[in-house]
Design brief:
By secondary structure, the protein is of the alpha+beta class. It contains eight helices and five strands; from the N terminus they run αββαβαααββααα. A hairpin with a 4-residue loop joins strand 4 and strand 5. The N terminus is likely disordered.
Length: 173
């Protein structure tokens, strides 16, 4: 529990150094939109779209946003409703109080073009292995929730999807 509090304070410090925290984060820097891909049931991917993103890439994102499960949301709207957007993809939150929404905002602001995903269980996926683990754990949970719960690692610091660990790593901490 102490680690989670330290990580949340660290995220808050990063947010302040990046231009503020919610709701004082009105100065969005050069972020204009957030690309959200919710086509996969095991995770939802978020990617910041910066003002200097090439027109070709932006046009491609607009085209993808016509597909079911993909949206482009103005940065200000995402920033103001981050908790709501993120909660929609979480089936079972195994990381309550992790400060995931604040962490996602900080990561998007610090690294707009880098995708980050929130998993079905409230974890964070950033690599191929994380995405694969999210799919596997969702399948295990859907097959037999009781067996899944028994196999769930107690030490969240060792959990590769732990938001407190992942976000801190993505922000250089």
């Amino acid at each position: 529990m102490k680690m989670a509090v330290c990580v949340r304070l660290w995220i808050l410090c990063v947010l302040v150094s990046l231009g503020g925290a919610i709701p004082a984060m009105a100065d969005s820097g050069d972020l204009v939109e957030v690309f959200i891909d919710a086509r996969q049931s095991a995770y939802v991917t978020y990617q910041g779209v910066a003002e200097d993103t090439s027109q070709l890439a932006r046009d491609e994102m607009v085209g993808y946003a016509t597909l079911e499960g993909i949206t482009l949301v103005p940065w200000a709207e995402f920033r103001d409703r981050a908790q709501d957007f993120i909660a929609q993809g979480i089936l079972k939150n195994e990381y309550p109080g992790a400060g995931t929404a604040l962490g996602i905002l900080a990561v998007l602001k610090a690294n707009p073009g880098r995708p980050i995903a929130v998993t079905w269980n409230g974890g964070i996926a950033t690599s191929f292995f994380d995405f694969q683990l999210a799919v596997e754990t969702l399948e295990a949970y859907q097959e037999n929730a009781e067996t899944y719960e028994k196999s769930r690692a107690e030490a969240k610091e060792e959990d590769p999807l732990n938001p407190d660990v992942q976000i801190r790593a993505m922000l250089g901490g």
